[in-house]
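Changelog entry: the NADP-dependent glyceraldehyde-3-phosphate dehydrogenase record was regenerated in this release. Current contents:
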Amino acid sequence: MAGDTFYKEIRAAGGAYKWHCDGAWRESTSGKTVGVSNPATRAREYEVQACTQAEVDEAFAAAKAAQKGWARTPLWQRAALLHKVAALMRDHAQPMADCLVKEIAKPSKDALSEVIRSADLIDYTAEEGLRALGEGALLTSDSFPGQTRNKLCLVSKVPLGVVLAIPPFNYPVNLAVSKLAPALMAGNAVVLKPPSQGVVAGSHMLQCFVKAGLPKGLVNMVTGKGSEIGDYLTGHPAVNCISFTGGDTGIAISRKAGMVPMQMELGGKDACIVCSDADIDLAAKAVLKGGFSYSGQRCTAVKLVLVVKEVADALAAKVAAGVEKLRVGMPEDDCDITPVVSESSANFIEGLVEDARQKGAKFLTPYRREGNLIWPTLLDHVTPEMRIAWEEPFGPVVPIMRVASADEAVAHCNANNLALQGCVFTRDINKAIAISDAMETGTVQINAAPARGPDHFPFQGFRDSGIGSQGIRNSLAMMVKTKSTVVNLDKDSYASG
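Regenerated structure tokens:
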């Protein structure tokens, strides 16, 4: 849409992006800003406010004050406002997508798709919320032995209060609205802490919530370095729920959070098991797409291929041939492989690759790096002694480990502390279900690569990969608590006999 004067107020006169509190876009009293670099150019692209702890307090105070009235707002009105947010996101999608290209090097087409998918998620949440949150229960006391029908229990769902939402860099719009929309539909207020990379796209996204006419103070956003305000945010006494998507930081948060309800997705080492009877063409295409889409920077990326030895040569050859056709370059050109998010990320990926090289892995494609741009790398003959057999690269590197049987593959999968998703390729549905049952991961895809969506499907990790379950209905259920109101009737009227 034109111009987007719609977004004008989110920037200060000097160009730095503001933070949002109590219905207003503000500059921080710290007088400081934090730079956001472009992963492709490694040059500073944006500046955002460096909020203080006092400003964090203001955000929570505004949220707490606004939440009480919002909790009394009828469900249909909450849904109507969320539909307005979704419509505004579609109308003003392109500037948001442009930020994703510059902040996280997401290919242009994928960036726009993320915004539209997020609007769809908001619409679905509004409709699902009307159904799920509108349901209650009436229990009668005489269903329990020895009781008469003199008590009626009205069971309802009430909001938790203030939700702290912390999305990750790789989907800073989609995984923000997957937290905001259920929280708001359930009657909560929100304080959003966007990721350092993705914060500007997050600001554009939040403006859609503001312009839709939500009550002031209901949605607030603080920006700045996690090292300075992160612990203060997650330990704040006004927090009634934490919804976090990210890495190891989430484990530390969960240990400190006490009795605060949490919804956490902390990454995975998603294993792809390829059986001897698999459709090798199908498996190769899935490994290629699952392993290298958005340069492997997805929690649901294929991060380890466990292939039965009889078909390993055929699979490796087909995947290698596909890797050679991937376009490597800049996100503006919609290349398949674009720069990873930061130099530190690129260095970590390179460390895993070098460890594998030193321990005897075979490179089916050459390793090449220029700045943050890493060419797609396919490793074969990976062994359990290599770090990459266990650790999550979060980059365009796919390791292949040859196994004697599917049972050996499952055993390796289950030995990892990361257990988000996995997949299995076989033509035998009975074998597929048996392997899925044996894999101790949150989701198993049969004859397809791991994937988070559709967004209404349950999405969860086991062990160090998460707490709780996402997916629209599950998120709605997590954002409320059960309340019982017991009506006591005249007992004499219900005396037994």
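Residues 278 and 426 are 4 Å apart (CA to CA).
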